[in-house]
Structure formats: C-alpha cells, structure tokens
Amino acid sequence: MAKADPTSPLDLRYITEALTTSYIGRNLVYYTSVRSTNDEAKMLAQQGAPEGTVVVAEVQTAGRGRLGREWLSPSHVNLLLSLIFRPPLAPIQAQRLTMICSLAVADAIHDVAQIEAQIKWPNDLLLAGRKAGGILTELGLRGTLLDYVVVGLGLNVNLRKEQLPPELRLTATSVAEVLGRPIRREALLCTLLGQLERRYERLKAGEMPVSEWASRLATLGRWVRVSDAEGAVEGQADAVDEDGALLLRLKDGSQRRILIGDVTLRQ
Ligand code: BT5
User: Fold this and answer.
1) pLDDT tens digits for range 83-120
2) 226 in contact with ligand 1, CB cutoff 6 A
3) How far is the CA of 11 from the centre of ligand 1 (A)?
4) Omega before 88 cis (within 30°)?
C-alpha cells in the first residue's frame, strides 16, 4: 500500500477499489474546491440524487459549522464531506443520523489509527480531549415529511496545528497529531463509509443508536455550561433522550431538556 502523503489529492481510483459498501459512496462527487460540500449535497438532493451520494472536497471556500460559524481547513490534508440520506424517519428523529455518523467516525479512527474518539454533545468529535471533527446535519422537508438529510463532516486528519489560526490551536487536534504520523485519508474514508453503511442498515432495521452514542459522550455525568441564542445555563449533564436532546439537572433540582446548544465542559 502506498504511504500517506499529507499533500497529495485524494486518489479516487484507490477509493473505488477499496470501498466495501453497496451504496454509500458509490456515487462520489469530488471537488478540488467548493463553497461548502453541504450546500452542494443539498442541491444534489433536491435534484433527486440517490441515497448514499457523497460529496467530497479538498478545500471549501465557505465551509460552515452550526449557527453560521465557520469550518476552517487547509486544502488536501483533511476530510471534508457530505452524505445524502433519505431515511424512513420523522424530522424530529433526524439526529439519529448524526449519532450513527459520529459513531462510524469513531469506529473508523479506531480501525485505522487505533485511537479512541469521544463525542462532545451534540456534534463534536474529540481526540485526546480536543476537537478533531464536527458534524453539520441539515434537513430537507416535503411538507411535514423528511425528504432528505445531509450530514456534513469535517475531520482533521493530517492537519498540523500551525495550519489553523492561533485561536484554534489550543482546542483543536487531528488524527495525525495524536498518532504522531500522517495516515492515508482514502483508507480512513473507505473504512468510515463501510462502518456507516452497516450502522445505517441497522438503524433502518429499527436499532436505536442512542445508548451506544451516549456511552461515548464525554459530556454525561459532568457539570456543564450550555449556551444557545437565548443565553447560557449550567447544570449536571444527566442523560440524553431518544432524539439526542440533553437532559440537564439544574442547581435547583429541576431538569431542563435542551435540543440545540453549545457545551463547555466544567472541571
Ligand atoms: C461543527 O460546527 O463542528 C460542524 C462542522 C461541520 C463542517 C463540515 S465540513 C463538510 C461540510 N460542509 C460544510 O460547509 N460544513 C460541513 P460547530 O459546532 O458550530 O463548530 C464550529 C467551531 O469549531 C468554529 O467556530 C471554530 O471555533 C471551531 N473550528 C473551526 N474549524 C475547526 C477545525 N478545523 N478544527 C477544530 N475546530 C474548528
């Protein structure tokens, strides 16, 4: 197998040959540069692209996080991709796709680099306590029904911290930084898509991912501060429910259910 070269473009032939999936990633749309793979995937989904379509790019000129934030990544070192699903779920259940994607990323990092990843509620992937990836899930509705779900993943693979702006260097990391050497992005991508297809099949067969997802959450049992557009609230992260909402125990003993927010872990 060729060695990992942290600057070369993704080898699409390698990916086609190494993929073990039957539909996820079989329609692979590759860009050297694109505004946002999520925007592209949403457009393709609206035009009828099949389930399992994957949009992947070497660099994004307008990569997005949640709530209008930016996702930053230099070109050719990381994985930037968006997947199209058409799941038989209600819109409120779409967080289950985020859960199986987070779990599949953790599986793949373990298989390829033997590193244990953790998840920070609701969508961060942590390696050694620092953010190595994030997921942005967006829905398309047809009336009140779910038409498609686009799950966007940004994963720092061969990134060196100096390639990020100074304010992110303390909180971010990459697979290569934790492992001590670069890895082949193609191998990680193919393993990830394989793990994801298995998990998606199980989800469609009725298996709930929430307890396994909860067991990987760095957040549970901790005293946390959760902020959203309306302000911040502190409490003990007690549990998550089936929709992925965080159940927070406040100081006065009451419980608050939080569907969207940002968590800061307290010591
Ligand atoms: C996320 O948002 O973590 C979801 C990121 C999803 C990015 C993917 S890339 C492919 C697809 N196409 C897109 O346009 N988006 C998706 P959020 O929880 O809002 O976190 C964003 C915050 O993470 C930023 O405000 C920064 O503080 C930090 N950040 C940005 N780039 C980072 C990086 N490369 N590594 C670690 N942290 C980063």
Assistant:
1) 999 999 999 999 999 999 999 999 999 999 999 999 99
2) no
3) 24
4) no
Question: Is the C-beta atom of 156 inside 6 A of ligand 1?
Answer: yes
Between CA 97 and CA 242 the distance in angstroms is: 12
Average pLDDT over residues 123-132: 97
Instruction: Give the chain's length.
Output: 267
pLDDT in tens, 69-81: 999 999 999 999 9
Question: What's the 103 CA to ligand 1 centre distance in angstroms?
Answer: 18
| Token pair belonging to 64 | 């997005």
Strand 231-240 versus strand 255-258 pairing type:
unpaired
> Ligand 1 centre and the CA of 102: distance in Å?
14
Q: What DSSP string describes 109-126? A: HHHHH---EEEETTTEEE
**135 C-beta closer than 6 A to ligand 1:** yes
Work out the number of other CB atoms within 10 angstroms of the CB of residue 208.
13
